[in-house]
TrEMBL record:
Family listed: Belongs to the glycosyl hydrolase 39 family.
The protein, known as: Beta-xylosidase
Sorted UniProt keywords: Glycosidase, Hydrolase, Signal
All copies of domain Glycosyl hydrolases family 39 N-terminal catalytic, residue ranges: 25-519
N-terminal signal peptide: 1-21
The species this protein was found in: Paludibaculum fermentans
InterPro entries in the record: GH, GH39_cat, Glyco_hydro_39, Glycosyl_Hydrolase_39
Keyword Hydrolase: yes
Pfam families per record: Glyco_hydro_39
Amino acid sequence: MTQRTPFLLMFACLALSQAHAQSIVIQVDAGKPAGPLKPVWSFLGYDEPNYTYMKDGRKLLSEFAAASSVPVYVRAHSLLVTGDGVAALKWGSTNAYTEDANGKPVYDWTIVDRIIDTYLERKMKPLVQIGFMPQALSTRPEPYKHNWKPGDNYNDIYLGWAYPPKDYAKWAELVYQWVRHSVQKYGKSEVDTWLWEVWNEPDISYWKGTPEEYHKLYDYSADAVKRALPSARIGGADSTGPGNDRASKWMRDFLTHVVHGKNYFTGKVGSPIDFLSFHAKGRPRFVEGGVVMGIENQLRDLDKGFEIIASFPELKGKPIVIGESDPEGCAACSSRVYANNSYRNGVMYSSYTATVMPRHLELAAKHGVNLLGAVTWAFEFEDQPYFDGFRDLATNGIDKPVLNVFRMLGMMTGQRVAVTNPAAASLASMLASGVKTTPDVHAFASRDTNSVTILVSNYHDSEKPGPAAQIDLNITGLPAGRIQMQHYRVDDEFSNSFEAWKKMGSPQQPTPEQYTKLERSGQLHLLESPKWIQAKAGKAQLEFGLPLHGVSLIRLTW
């Protein structure tokens, strides 16, 4: 946080305790286009690839895919890690590559294929992360596997799998064989729709080599992918958030290499790169008994990353994927151990997501760059305690409130339309200090052939209670006549399994009846029954209260 933050926090409680004297007037002009609506939220990722095909993993993937109007891209770590395929926190393995007694490569795609098959069965698309290092190729093969758990030293995880290859030619052949196998199994037309990216966060301890050794790894990997499938899309580097000077310099150096540097494999200038990727993370803190989010940190990462990419004319038009875009960094760090993560089970996480996702599009427009997607790095953790405070979308098969925001976002289709909303926080203020004083009441709207959809969120960085916002929503540009209105809501009462779980006594072994109730409460619910309204002269007006950290989706169809 900035030095201004403590000063601003002095006013947070005062701002939250004051009731709104007037309604917040939001104008939506459904007849005025405001640019394309890119469903950048249709991207998902996680550390533990073996959860993919487990019971609750399959269930959540099905639900996330069903929530999206377009195919969802999925990214997972450790797809080349050596091991038995047994999942653990921040660990996964596929045993795709081993060597025989003579050092000859042995390829086994059984587990990799099982993961990819699970995606394709749900019409999802792999965002294939090429990593990490198989034990037989690592320059430091021992120790290789960690046994990390929440509370342990985070640096203990970076073992043999994070090291450069002892033979770059063998590494390249592994990548080539993987892509070649994928084309043979799934067909060229299918694999052409995938994305391939090299490694993860190579600017920190996920890569135990030098920046130059990563550039070499990228060049060898990109050439191998293109040899196997010239039309494949390769990208990187999925470095950490460039909001700080160290990560910013690393990102610039990598992009300079792919544009102007000598290719380590071909000896020519430049490397193939079809999309660009980096990460953006917030930074919540536990302050005076409550969580204060750090949304400004995530937005600064986005802002700086887009600025850097836009500074390279050769790269400015290329698609960008935010490989991880989240409120903070460690999905497996349970709030039971890390108090600053206690926002995750309830409406803080859902309202944060609703307000930050549209800002991705605003920041991309600010810099004139081509944002393709933003990966939410949150999945599920199989067989862990109920609501243990992991950064996940579901717990033991029970959907959390945040998943319902993705259901809302998935209902937004067509084109963006104009919104006038003085109550929304400006990008400049959010970049400077987040949302520490007046709540950000934000609206985001789209229009399709026979519908208008409006997402309204009431967000504040503090989890302390505050008054509801009184919304006066005025919509113009509608067809005259009768229009059906559906009003969906996520708050403490609606679409909230966490509150339902607490009300039944927080059971760690729910009865079948309790489990069914929790499943039902985790779905997206209407605030009221659908009703018909009259659009007189193409206008409609709606008034409603929106609790702090509540999210509403208004859908008008005709």
